[in-house]
Prior knowledge:
Blueprint: H1 11-24, E1 45-50, H2 54-64, E2 70-77, H3 80-94, E3 105-107, H4 111-116, E4 122-125, H5 132-141, E5 145-148, H6 156-171, E6 176-178, H7 186-196, E7 203-212, H8 226-232, H9 244-247, H10 250-260, E8 266-272, E9 287-294, E10 304-312, E11 319-326, E12 329-332, E13 337-340, E14 345-348, H11 356-370, H12 377-396, E15 400-401, H13 402-406
Parallel strand pairs: 1-2, 1-4, 2-3, 4-5, 5-6, 7-10
Antiparallel strand pairs: 7-11, 8-9, 8-15, 9-10, 11-12, 12-13, 13-14
Amino acid sequence: MTTDHNNSSRRNFLKTTSAAALAGGSLLNDMSTVQASHISYDETVRIGLIGCGGRGTGAAGQAMNTEGPVKLMAVADAFENNLERCVRNLKGSYGENVDVPAERRFTGFDGYKGVLEQDIDLVLIATPPGFRPLHFEAAVAAGKHVFAEKPLAVDAAGVRRILRAAEESKQRDLLVQVGLQRRHERAYMETMQRVKDGSIGQIISARAYWNSPGVWVRPRKDNQTEMEYQMRNWYYFNWLCGDHITEQHIHNLDVINWLMDDFPVKAQGQGGRQVRTGREFGEIYDHFFVEYTYGEDNPMGSSVKLLSQCRHIRDCWNHVNEYAAGSEGSVDFGGAKIFDAKGRQTWEYGSGGRGGHQQEHHDLFADLRAGKRPNEAVYGAKSSMTSILGRMVSYSGQEITWDQAFGSERTLADVESYHSYSDTPPVLPNDDMTYQIPVPGSHEVL
């Protein structure tokens, strides 16, 4: 995919991005220059994997499913059992394409460094999101092409760090793909293009949903340190996950950003823990409702409200999709259907055109072999910040502008200071082993 969706239409965002990059300076001022790899169609693409959980294992398999030879050469994970299971499963499916001897298997918090020191062309980053700015920055510094899962950060400081690294990646002619796979699904792509071509007229409003039962829980074990427990259950701690509005709902928010070719100027919202209240669910909410406002200076030419829902509660209405209403009709993006102003269906993509997790890798490796270098880091960072803004307004109960949120100096954790499971995490449990829950009206986020 080689379109320019990573170029923001808003001058202010570009100015802010440039200012952030300048403020942070070059990532490589004191590092030796490493040139990006140039790969031919029939050349073996050597890949490394940082983060060997389910998503990382899946991404590595999808990479090896693409046309042309691909070989997994190095892996890293914070936990040895995750790493060994990943290698074992991939070896069983892809045989000699998994060439990861013991000396190229790296564990612990600093294991990512071992992967980046190897002779690889591209690295897949699928660690918990709180570590993503650190790992993305290091991959760019090492001159590696990058596939990074979403979100790219869990706080504004992390987003700014991603943007600085993105500028470096462009200077180095590195390919960067972000795991917002809807942008690679042909059904989404054609539906979006028809809407942008005016099939429903001027956009008036939008809706986005990620309502589901929730995800896994890994019970606390007697011999675990607090750091290991939180790392094993990273989804339930904001310094690692950013809450489910950031880790999951980012997909839906990104579709609306894509539609608007823009990002919200402000938001207000609410949320809480109504059902999923046990200590095993850490510090995150089980539901959010956010109203985002897009300004008038976007290609759609009008101010638009996005109503956003995400929920993790069992036995409720489950729905994951995005919609928009226009002056001449409406669109169901997930269903790839367009309707006229009276609600009559006028177009449908039909079967096929989905499977974005695999398609994004087909696109990535085709571009890499063709010498193309699309870079999705900026819109990936922009949509990550959109989800972070939603969490901030819901936790605080305040209306917050994009500029206020993006400029926040509040960080959730200094992940570079952690090197072992004996380290103290930034969040600690109360005496009863519950965690402090954000309370709107009193919780500070800026």
